[in-house]
Specification:
The chain has 149 residues and is α+β, with helices and mostly antiparallel strands. The chain contains 4 helices and 7 strands, in the order ββαβββββααα. Helix content is 34%, strand content 31%. Strand 6 and strand 7 form a beta hairpin.
Length: 149
């Protein structure tokens, strides 16, 4: 378990397999029943923070690109283990990330941003060509043709 010095509370969760279980609750945990699952199995006890939503503005309003939250499963035997991690929602599923994983994800998103900028530049060229055709100047839309005469 992590250092408990920053904890503000201990909670007791009723479980079907271990009875009442006292567990340290991190100060970032929402403490909701869906995480603590009273009456469930001890292994299912989860601490989760509120979601961090990464959004963008669209012509239809705000859209969520991805969500992330801090999470910890103090009694699990499965990866990522007992330590806190960041769970990231992508493509409709949640993916646990360590700090190194988050840095790799950040690098990937930066690369995607660069690709989107390249698409924007290409779209500018397509839009300019379309506008030139609409104005009735096909030579302006086709630089090869304008050089030849």
């Amino acid at each position: 378990m992590p250092d408990h010095d920053n904890s503000s509370r201990t909670v007791t969760v009723a479980t079907c397999d271990h009875g009442p279980v006292a567990v340290w609750e991190p100060d970032w945990c929402t403490g909701s029943e869906s995480e603590h699952q009273p009456g469930g199995h001890r292994v299912d006890i989860t601490h989760a923070s509120p979601d961090y939503e990464f959004t963008t503005s669209t012509n239809r309003g705000t859209a969520v690109v991805l969500r992330a939250c801090f999470e910890q499963r103090p009694f699990t035997e499965r990866p990522p283990g007992h330590v806190p991690f960041v769970n990231v929602e992508m493509d409709g599923d949640w993916h646990p990330h360590s700090s190194d994983d988050l840095r790799r994800l950040s690098d990937t998103l930066t690369a995607h941003a660069d690709e989107l900028r390249e698409l924007a530049d290409r779209l500018d060229g397509l839009t300019n060509a379309f506008d030139a055709i609409q104005r009735g100047t096909p030579a302006a839309a086709n630089p090869e043709k304008s050089r030849d005469g």
